[in-house]
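Hi V.,

You were right to ask for the full record rather than a summary. Here it is.
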Amino acid sequence: MPLGFRRRSLTRIFLLLSAGLLIRFAVTSSSSSRQSKPSHEIQAQNVLDFVSGSDDVLDVRRHKFLQSRMGRDEREDLLGDIVRNGVNDYWERFQKPYILGSDTAQLDAQSVMSSIEQLLSLNGWVAALCPTLARPFGQNKFENAYDDIVKQNHLYYVGIVIHSADHFLVDQLAVIVQLAKRLGPSNLFVSMLDYDSTDSTATLTDLSEAVLTLLGIPYRIRRVPGMTEDPAAAYYPLEEAHTRNLALEPLRELYQKRKIKFHRVIWLKGFTCPNDILETIKVSDANSAAMVCGMDWAEHNGFFIFSDRWRTRDINGDQFRQSKSSSKPDAVPPRDKVGSARYSQHVPFQVFCCESGTHVVDPAQSYYQGITYRAGLDYHNLSSTENPPDRGADAPCLDSTQAWFCRDLWASKARETVQELDASEGLGRRRKRDLGDDIPGNDVPDVVKDFPHRKAAESDPDANAGSDYDAMPDSDVPLEEAPSSPKLSIPNSLFTPARILVNPRCVTTYAGVSHTQLALDLFGSERDSSGPDGVGKYVLEDWEGAPESFVCQEQRQTGGRKATKTQRRLGFSIHGELQNQP
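Predicted structure:
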């Protein structure tokens, strides 16, 4: 045998052995890593992941860790043994004898899917009545209105925080199933957090786990205890921040360990129709918005009223007070001229802050920028002391975690302006001059002198009108006036604005609300004035800067959701926010 031929043969054998060892090492390391880590933890990419390179990054068949359950409630129920005996008896006598054969497995799976469909469609109005509701701008007329969203094949992250709200959960699960049908089960990731629920939420999360597993939808369902055993010692904004950050943990893990980025995060609250969620995504995409909210309505004394005014402020920084669904077009909400005009046309309008039930967040402008949910820590703990400390009129606002999130969005977007100036050739000195970093106080530019840091506020006669069912009632304390001494600052209008919108066409409601009547109040008879898919007036042409003051509705003491609130008008300086943040 020629020497060259033998050398080539040995080389081939060596390469085959090396490849085999490499694959074995990769499989072994992957297997050992899976065994050494809890199944709920997102696994980092290994050699095989890079080699296989599948586009279906959320394939639960390839990656079992994409479906996990943490902190299951194992407390024994009063009738738990009776239920188990009944289930076991039904399984052994009626189910097991008929599903052992592989020839019937497909029929059995279809039977289970049909049962899931019936279960979800018969509960509440979300799954059963959404297609029949009177919707504005032909949402139900055009079946292909959201085909463009489906064709983009984006990844969407669904976040749900549940605290003894079992009356929502099945309907929210139905919405997730319907979204999975439109967008694809491997294009969703569901993060469901049960925060110390004491109702039937634990049982319904078991149901959710079964449904999501059967449908191949990635999820993490997690139960966590309360931050304090005494509800009177709980500080609700801090609980909000804690639970929302926990619900976002898989989002960050998937990005850090597998470089997976989601297009939008959908926060589900209350009852929301699937088409409303797709509509909100469409508005978010069209405007490249950081956050788009629907409108959150509750029924009160026979009429519908905007119910989330703890977290929502119009672009002037005012609350949505006396905001009824039957209000005249020239009445609130909102109070600013442009927003009011757009609201009367039922098209999206810009706001300073919102949450308003179900809402959509762009993680590229928020969570992937390092923004997390937070709360003020200067609150008064009633369980430790009796006399509350005196807080200055210009002390930081102790409001909801969402309000902090909105202010962080404004500051983050403004930071882009500063970074652009720093990156521009020859503008470094201009930035220092404009910001007053290297000049005496008496040399501050005229553009800054013309925009003092306003904090004066007149008494508001209807400061405590309206409702806030999602949080708690306001106290009877009137709106406090802040000191009127001016402080020089850079005007907010000089910074790039955060794109935060409310879309009045997409509503969130609660149990017992007549959704059809609400739609008629808001929109009248169904009409279409902006084209077949309603996109004609989606896009805002002008974006305003942040207001220089806003109504601060704050919770200064512990007491959970029931704690009282006070209100005051507080100055807001983006320049000041940038200086206070790292």
